[in-house]
Amino acid sequence: MDIFFPIKLLADWFTYNILAIPQKTLIAEAVNFFVYDTIKILILLSVIIFVVAVIRSFLPPAKIRSILSYKHQYSGHIIASLLGIVTPFCSCSAVPLFLGFVQAGVPLGVTFSFLIASPMINEVALVLLLGLFGWKIALIYIVSGLVIAILSGVIIGKMKAQNLVESSVYENLINVKTETLNTKWPVRLSYARNYTWDIIKKVWPYIFIGIGLGAWIHGYVPTDFLAKYAGADKWYAVPLAVLIGIPLYSNAAGIIPLVGALAEKGVAMGTSLAFMMAVTALSLPEFMILKRVIKIKFILIFAGVVGAGIIFTGYLFNFIL
């Protein structure tokens, strides 16, 4: 039984009874899509963010930096990428924590693994992908995102590019001290509840805008239009999607509903996910912030390594899905 069936009934009731929109019309399709996906995603998001927040209560930033500073380089990349899943930052808000890692002595490549993973594969992305595409696509995306974050960090670390980091960053190295945690569960649950509400308040406009655009595409954009220009048979579709995604700025909450609508209209899954990866992990505003702490050459290396990984993943998805 579909666990979201009650939400579907609610969306049908609201669309056809409360709003009295005639069935099988374009506006009915769009409104029904918007109501159903908005309710479903907000419920999933609240539940999973709450659970992740409880986990995060055991991992204050100082403890995270301490763990990453003393691990073997490869395990450090893996741990940093996994931490990205439970730290729901957009690409720009992840930069300050990235800077804190560098100043705490965390290896540069490891910090980039975190910087890539955090906006790309956090729990918000997981919830939205799970709700729109099912667990198989969500799992494949999470694994591919982790691989991109880990390998990109390893490659950047091997380049020994410390000289491409602004000297002011290393002038402010800090001592890492693990914070004392309050282990009482009422405190943790209160933190999780407040944290969940704080995140929902921040991302709900992106969710509404993203699902709204997706609903419009779902109801009004002809199926063959997008498939014609971004189908799996177009060799240039994946790199074009990445190039288009870089100037845009959004988080997973805003972009995944749109990706769902694009995929439904015939855009190849690999192309759609490559577009989403580029928007969340390679945004132009992120580059502008990074310019304050690393040199342009390093930004180009970072964009090239990650972009190549995203393009490869897009082609791979188009081949296997």
Report on this model:
- This protein is mainly α.
- It has one domain.
- Helices cover 75% and strands 0% of the residues.
- The chain contains 16 helices and no strands.
- The chain has helices at residues 5-18, 26-56, 61-70, 73-85, 94-103, 108-120, 123-133, 135-158, 167-170, 185-220, 223-230, 237-245, 252-264, 269-281, 284-290, 296-320.
- It is globular, with a radius of gyration of 21 Å.
Short description:
The chain has 321 residues and is an all-alpha fold.
Question: Key terms for this structure?
Answer:
single chain, 321 residues, mainly alpha, 16 helices
Poorly predicted runs of 5 or more residues: 174-180
Major sheet description: none
The helicity comes to over 70%
Number of helices, where a helix is a run of at least 4 consecutive DSSP H or I residues: 16
Number of domains: 1
The assigned structural class equals: mainly alpha
